[in-house]
Amino acid sequence: MGMNSVFEEYIAFRFKDEQLQPIKHPHIPDFESLLHIDHQKEVLRRNTLQLVRGLPANDALLWGDRGTGKSSLVKSMLGLFAKEGLRIVQIYKMDLWHLSDLYDLFREREEKFILFFDDLSFEPGDESIRVLKSLMDGDIEERPANVAIYATSNRRHLMPERNGEERFPEESYWERVSLVERFGIRLGFFAFGKEQYLSIVRHMVAQRGLRIGEEELERLALQWSMSNGYSGRSASQFVKNLEGVLKLS
Prior knowledge:
The chain has 249 residues and is an alpha/beta fold. The protein folds into two domains: 3-189, Rossmann fold, CATH 3.40.50.300; 194-248. The protein is 45% helix and 15% strand. The protein contains nine helices and seven strands, in the order αββαβαβαβαβαβααα. The chain has helices at residues 3-9, 38-52, 70-81, 99-107, 128-137, 169-180, 194-207, 214-228, 232-248, and strands at 12-16, 19-22, 60-64, 86-91, 112-117, 147-153, 185-189. The chain has a seven-stranded mixed sheet with strand order 2-1-4-5-6-3-7. The protein starts with a helix and ends with a helix.
């Protein structure tokens, strides 16, 4: 299959081992079902709409607690805009060095591309920080206008905070700050509380049409959260387990 038709047939890809691989069954979360992150949703939706319409758009860093919807929000953009030509390419850090090859491929295309780094982080002194910085700046080669970089990270500055053993702590600190500052949009995601967790559970149970009493649902959901916490991911895992149990019995 030629590159022209691959972008028409598929909407999601991974770039791995220097190869662009189509994903036949992409996971596309429902944008409307992502709860308690309304501000983050609106900012990312509007920025992605700008990209899709051929207007200037920023790179985006989504940072914060695990299980709060960072990756789901990025992937949900496909559900909103794939029909308008949006494509997502998941990039792995070890393939950063070959990313400029993709720029040549995308530059002449009508489609718009999000390069997606999921769970991005760097150790102090990691050379690939400089590579990513130059790719975001376009280095000596201008970056294609139809490409934006979206990254998620559990760390606000993409690295562990400074520790006393670093040889050049100041240099390492400014290195990561200057990378983070290249993301024009930086969205924080914070841990949910009990009520937010329960509201996500109720929403998902209703969506799946599961029949269970309100009090029993709350009791089981809180029992589950004791070992899994109050995150959106935990709510999703609980409902998956509940659906299995209800349908087995």
